[in-house]
Structures are given as C-alpha cells and as structure tokens.
TrEMBL record:
InterPro entries attached to this UniProt entry: FAM173A/B (IPR026170), Methyltranfer_dom (IPR025714), SAM-dependent_MTases_sf (IPR029063)
SUPFAM superfamilies per UniProt: S-adenosyl-L-methionine-dependent methyltransferases
Record-linked CDD domains: AdoMet_MTases (cd02440)
Annotated region (Disordered), positions in chain: 260-280
Keyword S-adenosyl-L-methionine set for record: yes
Protein name stated in the entry: Class I SAM-dependent methyltransferase
GO biological process, one term: methylation
One protein family per Pfam: Methyltransf_31
Key words of the record: Methyltransferase, S-adenosyl-L-methionine, Signal, Transferase
A molecular-function term among this protein's GO annotations: protein-lysine N-methyltransferase activity
Domain Methyltransferase span(s) in chain numbering: 73-188
Species assigned in the record: Cupriavidus cauae
C-alpha cells in the first residue's frame, strides 16, 4: 500500500513519513527493532518505476473500515510495501495477501507479520501486480498512480460483483467512487481514500413479464427504458451496488438482486418482479 511514481518524491518526502503500526506490541521471537534492523526502508527509495511512500496507519484503518472488512474476507493489497495494511487486515481476522515487487520489502513484511503474531493469516508474494492472479480477493486495496489504476481497471471490473476496491489518494478516471473519505488526524499527507464496489453486468435486453427492460450500463450507473405495448418509459436513478440494482420507471421504484442472467425483486408498492436476460 505504498507506491508512488518518482515524480511525486519531493512532495511525498515532506508529506509522509513512516508511521508505526498501531495495536498490540510485538510478540513471538523478535522485537520491532530487531525486525527493522535487518532491513529498514527509507521513504522515497526507488523501486520499479516508482518510489516507496508508506500509507499512514490512520488511513490504513479508515480504508479497512470503508471496505467493511470481516474475518470472512480475503484481502489483496497491490504494492504492499512494508506490509502494514495486510498485517492490519490480518489482525482484524481476515486472510490477507500482499503483492510487492521489492524482495527486501517482502522479506521485511513476512518477518513483521510473524513478529506481530499474524504470520498464519498474512501472506506476502514477490511479483508484478500486472502478472499476478488476485481474482479470489473480496477486497482489493492499492496506492498507485492514476495511469496504473487505469491499467488495472479492466481486471477489477471483471472481478466478482460485490468485491470492494479501496484506493489511497488516486481515482479511476471517469469511474466515480461509491464512497470518499478523508482522514484529518494521524495523517500528514495522502489522506483521502476512495471506494468502489464491483458492479454486476446488466447491459442488454431483459424480459420482465410482458415487458422489455432495455439497459445500458457505465460502471455502476444504469440508464434505459421499460417497454410495454408500444409505450416506452425511460428509467432514472439507475444504480448497481454489487449484485443489487435500483431504478425508477414511471411512478414505481424497483429494487432487485442480480444473479447472472436473472434478476428478481420488489417494487416500492410491494409487488414482485423478475427479469431474464434475452440479449446482452
């Protein structure tokens, strides 16, 4: 959770220093000083087309809160740096994996995870995030520049609907976040987080009883028409959150659950509806 491009070095060095892990003191066989004495990264050190800048612990905590992380989740941190976000997630009971290109940071993260008592739940892999498979994640976290986010965006959008993605500082261009938060205490720089929930794919023509629901989709936003007996009613307020869809057609608000090629739900008045995809 610790990558910035070299052009950001000057600002990052001023704004962000390495902050200690919060929570219980170190256990197991090593102390904090013993772990970092083996290898101690410096803020701004060069990496693979990037430099290392740590995420403040305050923002780490906020990002995991935004992700609504539970022990049932599997989190993957892309560019995991010194491992603090993965280790914090593991302390919350989740299984967590960090993918980091720098082998020294990977080794440091593994040692710290063992010292913090979460080595069984925190895994660190040395590798290229663009060549790694993280499709089993239910939560993805990242601290990457916009151009790298855009390279990752198609992969993220193809993940299982409902997967939560939380980014430190940088957005996904025209993919608007579902939630934005800013930390004002315990964070000196890079203190904003953005969250997206991967939407199910609904674009196409759906049969809804004797009606046709024609939908167009841009990320989590949906537009379209509800057609019946030659009449066409535009839909409004269309939105997808994971596998949940809401939209308004005429004077009715529809809410439903998406499951592959079918949807079912209720209207505001309590009536039930279901739809089957005819043509994507």
């Amino acid at each position: 959770m610790t990558i910035l491009h070299k052009s950001f070095v000057a600002a990052a060095l001023v704004a962000a220093g390495a902050m200690a892990f919060s929570g219980p003191g170190l256990a197991q066989t090593e102390t904090a000083s013993e772990v970092t004495s083996v290898y101690k990264p410096s803020v701004g050190q060069s990496g693979k087309d990037v430099v290392w800048v740590p995420t403040s612990q305050a923002l780490v905590d906020r990002m995991l809160d935004m992700a609504e992380l539970t022990p049932r989740d599997h989190l993957v941190d892309l560019g995991s740096g010194d491992g603090r976000l993965v280790i914090t997630a593991a302390k919350r009971g989740a299984s967590a994996r960090g993918i980091e290109f720098n082998p020294d940071l990977v080794a440091l993260s593994r040692r710290t995870a063992q010292a913090e008592g979460v080595g069984n739940r925190a895994r660190f892999d040395q590798g290229d995030i663009f060549k790694s498979d993280f499709s089993n994640a239910t939560v993805v976290t990242l601290f990457l520049l916009p151009d790298l986010n855009l390279r990752l965006r198609p992969t993220l959008l193809n993940m299982k609907p409902g997967t939560r993605v939380v980014s430190n500082t940088f957005t996904m261009d025209d993919w608007e976040p579902d939630e934005t938060a800013q930390v004002t205490q315990g964070c000196a720089g890079h203190c904003t987080a953005y969250k997206w929930v991967i939407p199910a794919k609904v674009q196409g023509t759906w049969r809804m009883g004797d009606k046709q629901l024609v939908l167009t989709q841009k990320y989590q936003m949906v537009e379209g028409t509800l057609r019946e007996e030659g009449a066409s009613t535009p839909i409004s307020e269309g939105r997808i959150a994971g596998t949940k869809i809401t939209f308004v057609a005429g004077d009715q608000r529809y809410t439903g659950e998406i499951s592959g090629r079918t949807m079912q739900g209720t209207t505001e008045g309590g009536g039930r509806w279901n739809a089957t995809l005819m043509k994507p």
